[in-house]
TrEMBL record:
CDD domains: GPATase_N (cd00715), PRTases_typeI (cd06223). The lineage of its organism: Eukaryota, Metazoa, Spiralia, Lophotrochozoa, Mollusca. It comes from the Eukaryota. It comes from Tegillarca granosa. This is Amidophosphoribosyltransferase. In the C-terminal section; belongs to the purine/pyrimidine phosphoribosyltransferase family.
Length: 563
C-alpha cells in the first residue's frame, strides 16, 4: 500500500488517513500534533490555530527517528561528575582520566554527548576543555586526556530532549565572569525555566542554547541584590539560585580551586560524594576515615566509584551545598523546603534509571528492585512453570518474584548487546522482526510453559507486543505479564523524557484491555503504595527524613509546574 503523506516542515507530515501514520510506528516515533477540521484550520489541545494545510480532513503528525531508548520510552537526561586532587598541587593524580572513567560509569545516564573541563585551580587561570557528540569512549582519546591535565575538573554525559541534539548544548558550560571562569554541569530540568529565562533576557543577557543548564550558568554570573562588599561570594550566589528555583537540579560547579556540589531542596536528582584512596588501600579493612584522601569525587551515582579507586563517602543532602577542595569536603549550607514539605527524589531512579550497583539513601538499588519483585509477587501472584524477565534492569525484581512464590527463575531471552543505538531502517519484512534482532529466544525454557514475564515498566507498549509474539511463536502455553512499577500516566517536568500523555499506553487504554492488546493471558502492575513501601522500607538517610516524587504515576507534583 502506498502511504499518503504530505511533508510540511520540521518533520511534520500530513496524513489524510490515520492508518497511514500508524504503519510508520516501527520506523518512527509518531507524534500526533493536530487534527484538521476544515481547510486551513487545525485543532490542537491548546485551541485552534491557522495552518497552511491541504483541502481535506486528516491528521498532522510529527515523525521522529526512533532510537533504542525511544523504543523503551523513558530517558534520563544527564550524568555529572567532578574530581579534585588532595595534597600538593600540581598533583600526581590523573584528574582527567579519573573524570573520564567516572563518565564511562555514568554512560547509561546519557549517550549523546560528553564533555570534560579541567583547571590548574590558580586564580584566573584558563580552563582546558574537550566536548563532543557521541559516547564517552568516542569523544576522548589518550592524547586529549593528556592535554586535559589539571588539579580539578568536572564532566558531563548528556541525552537531549527533542531538537536539542546539538554540539552547542554539550556540557559542561563555561562562562567568563568578572571574577574569572566558571564551569557548570547540570542534571535535571528547572520547573520554572520559563520565568527564569524571561528574567535573564530582561537583564539583557543573551542566551545561545535554550537549555536550563545555560540559565543556571548565567544566573550564577549575577551579583546578588545585597551586593558583595567583601568580594565575590559564590556560595551566596548559589543560595540565591536555590531560592529562585526549587527543582530539579544536581550541579557540579568549578571556580578557581574549588568545586561546589549542589542538590535542589527536594533532592530530586541524586548526587553522591566519594573519597579517592591509594589503590593499595582499596582492598584493606581500614575505615576510610583513617586513610588519607588522594582526592575527592562527586557523581550522579556511586556505581562508578570502584573504577576510579574511590569509596562511597556520603550523599549530598537535598538542598545542600558541599564545597570540595584539596583540603577536603565541607558542607556549607542546606536550603529549606517550603512549608516543610518532604524530599522528592525521583522514584524512577530506583525502578529504571540507576545502575543496580549504585547506592541511594543508604540502600543499594539492586536490593530495592528485589523488594519491588517481592511486593509484586504478594500483590499479583500467578500460577506458572517459570518466571523470567525482559533483560536487564528487571532481573532482580523477576528473581525475587520467583523466589517469593517458589517458582523457578529462568531466562527466556538472550540479549544481543551489540545491536547499537540507532536503527538502520531495513525493509518492511525485516522491520517486523525488530525485537528478534535484539533478543534471541531460549526455546527450551519457553515451549509448552506457563511463563510469568516481569518487566520494570511499560511506557508506550511498542516493545511488549513483539516480545509476547516472539514467546508465542516459540510455543509458550500461557504468558502472564507483571510490571514492577505502576502505570505511567503523567509527564515529567523534572528532567526525564517521558513521552506525551497521548503516547503513554496507560492513557490510551484501560488496564483490563492491555492483556488482549499485548496478546498476553494477564497483566498486573505494582501498586503505587507497593512501590513506595518497597523503596522506603529500608531507607536510611542522614537526616532521618525521606520522600519520593511519584508525579508521573499520580499527577501530584512536588512543585506545581509553570505553564
Ligand atoms: S515525575 Fe516521575 S520520572 Fe519525573 S521526577 Fe517524578 S518520579 Fe521521576
Amino acid at each position: 500500500m502506498t502511504l499518503m503523506s504530505i511533508r510540511l516542515c520540521n518533520n511534520n507530515y500530513f496524513f489524510p488517513w490515520v492508518e497511514d501514520a500508524e504503519q510508520l510506528q516501527n520506523r518512527y516515533l509518531v507524534v500526533k500534533l493536530f487534527s484538521v477540521t476544515r481547510k486551513g484550520k487545525c485543532s490542537s489541545q491548546n485551541g485552534t490555530r491557522t495552518r497552511d494545510l491541504p483541502n481535506t480532513s486528516g491528521t498532522l503528525y510529527q515523525l521522529r527517528t526512533l532510537t533504542m531508548s525511544d523504543d523503551y520510552g523513558l530517558r534520563e537526561h544527564c550524568g555529572v561528575f567532578g574530581c579534585v586532587a588532595a595534597k600538593d598541587w600540581p598533583t600526581q593524580l590523573d584528574v582527567a582520566h579519573t573524570i573520564y572513567l567516572g563518565l564511562i560509569g555514568l554512560q547509561h545516564r546519557g549517550q549523546e554527548s560528553a564533555g570534560i573541563v579541567t583547571s590548574m585551580g590558580t586564580e584566573n587561570c584558563k580552563f582546558k576543555s574537550k566536548k563532543d557528540m557521541g559516547f564517552v569512549s568516542h569523544v576522548f582519546h589518550e592524547e586529549e586526556l593528556l592535554k586535559l591535565r589539571g588539579n580539578l575538573g568536572i564532566g558531563h554525559t548528556r541525552y537531549s530532549t527533542l531538537g536539542e541534539s546539538d554540539a552547542k548544548n554539550i556540557q559542561p558550560f563555561v562562562v567568563e565572569t568578572l571574577h574569572g571562569l566558571i564551569a557548570v554541569a547540570h542534571n535535571g530540568e528547572l520547573i520554572n525555566a520559563k520565568s527564569l529565562k524571561t528574567k535573564l533576557l530582561k537583564h539583557g543577557v543573551g542566551l545561545s542554547t535554550g537549555t536550563d543548564s545555560e540559565l543556571i550558568t548565567q544566573l550564577l554570573t549575577h551579583t546578588p541584590e545585597c551586593g558583595e562588599p567583601n568580594g565575590i561570594n559564590w556560595i551566596e550566589r548559589i543560595k540565591k539560585i536555590m531560592s529562585e528555583t526549587l527543582i530539579s537540579y544536581s550541579l557540579v560547579i568549578m571556580h578557581d580551586d574549588k568545586l561546589y556540589a549542589v542538590r535542589d531542596p527536594f533532592g530530586n536528582r541524586p548526587l553522591s560524594l566519594g573519597k579517592l584512596l591509594p589503590v593499595s588501600s582499596m582492598s584493606g579493612k581500614k575505615d576510610i576515615e583513617d586513610i588519607d584522601a588522594d582526592g575527592w569525587v562527586v557523581s550522579s551515582e556511586s556505581c562508578c566509584f570502584n573504577s576510579v579507586a574511590a569509596r562511597y563517602y556520603r550523599e549530598v543532602l537535598p538542598g545542600e551545598i558541599v564545597e570540595l577542595s584539596k583540603d577536603g569536603v565541607r558542607s556549607v549550607y542546606v536550603a529549606p523546603r517550603p512549608e516543610a514539605k518532604p524530599p522528592a527524589m525521583c522514584i524512577f531512579e530506583y525502578v529504571y534509571f540507576a545502575r543496580s550497583d549504585s547506592t541511594f539513601e543508604g540502600q543499594m538499588v539492586y536490593m530495592v528492585r528485589q523488594r519491588c519483585g517481592k511486593q509484586l509477587a504478594l500483590e499479583a501472584p500467578a500460577d506458572a512453570d517459570i518466571v523470567s524477565t525482559v533483560p536487564e534492569s528487571a532481573t532482580p525484581s523477576a528473581m525475587s518474584y520467583a523466589n517469593t512464590l517458589g517458582i523457578p527463575y529462568g531466562e527466556v531471552f538472550c540479549k544481543n548487546r551489540y545491536v547499537g543505538r540507532t536503527f538502520i531502517q531495513p525493509n518492511m519484512r525485516l522491520r517486523q522482526l525488530a525485537v528478534a534482532k535484539k533478543f534471541g529466544a531460549i526455546t527450551e525454557n519457553i515451549k509448552g510453559k506457563k511463563i510469568v514475564l516481569v518487566d520494570d515498566s511499560i511506557v508506550r507498549g511498542n516493545t511488549m507486543i513483539p516480545i509476547v509474539k516472539l514467546l508465542r511463536s516459540e510455543g509458550a502455553k500461557e504468558i502472564h505479564l507483571r510490571v514492577a512499577s505502576p502505570p505511567i500516566k503523567h509527564p515529567c517536568y523534572m528532567g526525564i523524557n517521558i513521552p506525551t500523555q497521548q503516547e503513554l499506553i496507560a492513557n490510551r487504554m484501560p488496564i483490563e484491555k492491555m492483556p488482549e492488546y499485548f496478546g498476553a493471558d494477564s497483566l498486573v502492575y505494582l501498586s503505587v503504595d507497593g512501590l513506595v513501601r518497597a523503596v522506603q522500607e529500608k531507607m536510611k538517610t542522614a537526616t532521618g527524613e525521606g520522600g519520593h516524587c511519584v508525579a508521573c504515576l499520580t499527577g501530584k507534583y512536588p512543585v506545581e509546574p509553570e505553564w
